[in-house]
């Protein structure tokens, strides 16, 4: 089995949280198996989740800030701000991306949403016509691991929260990761985390270890990745939006 | 028809954006009809979308930051930070909340997600057992208005983005607003906004005006609102999560 590079995108404000324990268990297990692990600890690194002109060291249009226009310009000229360039390199290096977060208001924390908006920019993560089965990161894998206050009974079509994959995680998994071409692992959920006792938490840690090791053992094909997506987009294909 | 109070929660970094035009059209139409309108312009107001101890002027547990524990403590003692207290008052005053944003990576911008995490706190927006048909803000209304680069053909079950309400907007609408007890209006979507010409945009503005005036004309019943949700939760019902 070839050693892989795994990026853990982690979001929780408390270093002693159960989410931190899950992150550490995944990290240690993957390194122990010979893989290379990089962690984007978004809260600890003070990641700014807000889109803006600070995303770029260049300006395509000083009169009006149109986000994708500026992103395309930065992708063509290598002028993303250092924090975004750093995260994009981590993404580009990763065979497998593992997200670890608590489910807040039915989705990942805002800091993860903002990480996606800024890092997975037009011209880096996607471009016109390059999505899903023609996505930029085809051949690579992604996996969601999360905690939820909800028990298993809350999830499922017709239950209070709805189906985990086709509803709750639809935004992140389908409209985000699959859109970019990633092949998804089944999500890992520590259900009812606040009310799970010590033994139950040890069991969750053990289950996550098994899951991430299995995910990392699967083949990836980096030859499918589109390294310069804008080369495939005719100039002017993108019309500016106000 | 009774005059209503409408909160517009608005997120776009560019003051000259089409989203700003939609916000302004809704604002002017509602005021013209005699309603009171308050706008939370999240980017312009520099709203901080990151959860943390800065959310509170109190500390329930200095050893470990557990978000809902601190939120419950602040709700009981009136110790939310000024920015959160201001937004909570706006929410509490509003008969109708209108969200206006561009769809980024399949969802609202991170600044709106973070607004929800911080403002719609445990003890203010929900509490144990108070959700959906027992939600805190029953009797009030909410409506999503958004722009999307995608055309109508991208939406719908089985299409690239999936069904608008049961998949794309599930997090915000069902796991957020309906969870809190709000009655939802049909979402308003300006499809294919970047590629819509001037006449098409005027038509969208006109359609939104019609929609928000109709929504504001519908009855609300503020007597159904639970003003002190934690009074209904036994002490200790909430177990601390690490």
UniProtKB/TrEMBL annotation, chains A, B:
Keywords: Oxidoreductase
Domain Flavodoxin-like fold: 4-210
Domain of life: Bacteria
Protein name: NAD(P)H-dependent oxidoreductase
GO molecular function, one term: NAD(P)H dehydrogenase (quinone) activity
GO cellular component labels: cytosol
Coiled coil: none
Record bears the keyword Iron-sulfur: no
Stated family: Belongs to the NAD(P)H dehydrogenase (quinone) family.
Residue ranges crossing the lipid bilayer per the database entry: none
